[in-house]
Please model this.
Amino acid sequence: MNTVVATGPRVLLRRLREVMAGSGTAQERLDQVVQVIAANMVAEVCSVYLIRDGVLELFATEGLKPEAVHRTTLRLGEGLVGLIAEQRRPMALSDARSHPNFAYRPETGEEIYRSLAGVPILSGGREVGVLVVQNRTQRHYTEDEIEAMQTVAMVLAEMVDSLVGAGNGVHRAGLAELPARLSGTVLNEGMAGGVAVLHQPRVVVEQHVADDIDAEKTRLDEGIRVLRQQVDDMLRTAIAEPGGESREILEAYRMFAHDKGWASRMRAAVDGGLTAEAAVERVQVETRARMAEVSDAYLRERLNDLDDLANRLLRILTGQTASVAIESLPPDAVLVARNIGPAELLDYEKIRVKALVLEEGSMTSHVVIVARAMQIPVIGRVERLLEYVDDGDAILVDGDHGMVLLRPGEDVASAFAQNLAAREAESARHAALRDLPAVTQDGVRIVLNMNAGLLIDLANLDSTGAEGIGLYRTELHFMVRATMPNVAAQTEFYARVLERAEHRPVVFRTLDVGGDKMLPYLTRSDEQNPAMGWRAIRLSLDRPVLLRMQLRALLRAAAGRRLNVMFPMVAEVSEFVAASALLERERRRLENLGEPLPLEIRVGTMLEVPGLAWQLSALLPLVDFISIGSNDLLQFLFASDRGHPRLVDRYDVLSPPALKFLRHVVQTCDSAGVPVGLCGEAAGRPIEAMALIGLGLRNISMTAAAIGPVKMMIRSLDCRALAEYMADFYDLPDHSCRLRLENFARDRGVAV
Model:
């Protein structure tokens, strides 16, 4: 019983099309569908469960007791059927009753059936039901049979609306009618208000079963050719534009458009009896199911590129040059989507898009990088977003605090407008300080640098008045690429960074990858504690060729200029010595080749591992500067995962032990005459920056948006009075000194 689908998938699809196009109610046609599937797959049972009011309900069956229809229900995750729906992936069991998730329903009469195979029924990427077959014997269902069931499930998805109807659990169920406040993760700061525009690139496939297989193959091949041409045209445009990240992203995007494996999977689906459109949709559903299982951010980004390409290909095959939303885009559009590809965002009119809100997304996702280039705020990871939003809804986006306000009342809208106006006025005040020095009331000069990681970030050097780049995260250039950049490509990129910075210094941090930031062209390993695992300098020293290539590129890019290099995650002096030796080796190599060298090379290290602070006496004679990485340092200092939602606010950088530790580092470096700075989130908040200055730091680096507020704080601060005020903080038993510092700022008129 484990050999073949009885009459083949093409025959099954044609028979299903006849049934679904026939007379009778939707329920009557579904009853016929399960009979046809059971006969075709030589199964004693075929059942369809659909989600209604949030639970799986048995809608039709061939083989189980008829009285169980519309009576038997399962929660998502309950029983094998519930597990298939929850995980959104197929399941095939020769002995279903031995599975720990097996849930017996006596009203169905299924106790006599041993084996089970089921696949989720997905519509628009969401689970709407489950298709199940069962047999009395221990049957081993083949991959061909599972694939046939998946194809049938895709066809069945088109019947769901007529069976369950709108507003009863499959759709929004009234969530998109009342005002709502949703929270998410800030991916690009800013505030905007406007009209919600649902990004709906999905095309409804009207015909799934092919009448002429050869004709469908020809249509698919022509569609793929047009798609590739479109991507090539976009790439040529990106190359002509300033920046660089969009080009790198589209290079990776182009690689997937030309991927032979993706095309062959769609052609195989056509061979199975599907139309060109249905074949694209079938492979797209598989891709989305894989996305749900992948936790690796880079792999999810790659799969999302394929999803984006499938949407484009569907529009080409159906003759739709653009989605309706793009054609009728309002002047104050706020794009709302589960996710969106970078190329799709570029399709929209830049001047009309005010913000982007996503159910998914990450700080390094390609679409967020493009959104930064478009200078629009982005909020991601908003749970159940699409269940709450309707096209045309009034929507307010607070990209500073990660809040989305839907259908706000007049009072909320008015308050938001006032906050937006105040923000714009404050930004104007900060902009007015751009060319003024960051000097305290008592004459202490503070160096304000900017953190960056992309070429598009460098435009902020002029607009903010930053004195340089205190931290350039080189790994982002590697993460937006599909392949490892060679020395020539890296050299060109770093040279462009230095050219954009002009006379201002740039501190390049070597690759901080590994752990949870793996590159696709590096060996991967599962780690329980990736933040403390095989990453940064540890990975670079174990893969010295990777580090040498980067150092060679930096040396060449800085020919005739000053080069500042620092190594991340150094835990002991020997690691710094080993990394510095590789830099010197590359310098000598270029010198021997007669290549031009940098005018000056300054080498430093990040101080992120607390243990390194107790080796400063051995380290300081070897380095030109120290940069404190407050983000990692504090999580290691407190043994607290800064990404854990229950711990994110548990410990405070303004606590006595943290301040005392930082003061020790600053004083030790000052005594040795070694410049010390700090880059990290702590530098970008005025109250924290004030404390850092009070304990002795005179060089801090932060996000571009933070420079204005921090400079305003500095110019209103009496540094000597603050240092005296903080003198008694360091041995206090308090959880935090934040309130004391806020009181100081209020009493002294410091702008925090």
